[in-house]
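Before a colleague's protein record goes any further, I have to sign it off. Thanks in advance; the entry in question is below:
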Amino acid sequence: MQELRKKFQFLPFIINITICLVFGAIGRYFTKKNVVKFYEVSGQHLGYPSLSITIKIIIIISILLGIAAFLIWQRRKEIKHYYTLIALYLSQFLIHLLWRITFINFTDYFISSFLMIALIILILTTSITFFRINKVAGLLTLPYLIWISYIGYLSYYLYFFN
């Protein structure tokens, strides 16, 4: 049995990472004015990491998600419902953006709680699906799930005690 070695495709690799970083940048853009105020008023008291640490964590997670997406992209011809999977994958970024705007800009902790539940379900579903296709890709999504679960916990705390 001859094993085929695929040539590393640099441009798709960079595009996948860039997509994730762009979604993070869009979230930062839409919440930039209110995020500093949020950290000054609520974030420090709840155990949120500092804003500079949060930004670094988000960048690292975005890169990991981009690598995971690239690994899935490499196997796209073998995946029966590839475009459905990509829609699922991208929808988590949209829900995350909506959560961020709802939570930080509008301080609507009730609606943001439902968005957080939806986000965790989407990430979990994506992680499991990625893992079934490529174990490394699935594992690379776990830091995002852990991060969002931690932020979700702090968000629920803020909702219930405010």
Q: What stands out?
A: The first helix runs from residue 10 to 46. The chain has a mean pLDDT of 90. Residues 10 and 104 are 36 Å apart (CA to CA). The helical segments are 10-46, 51-74, 82-105, 109-133, 135-140, 142-160.
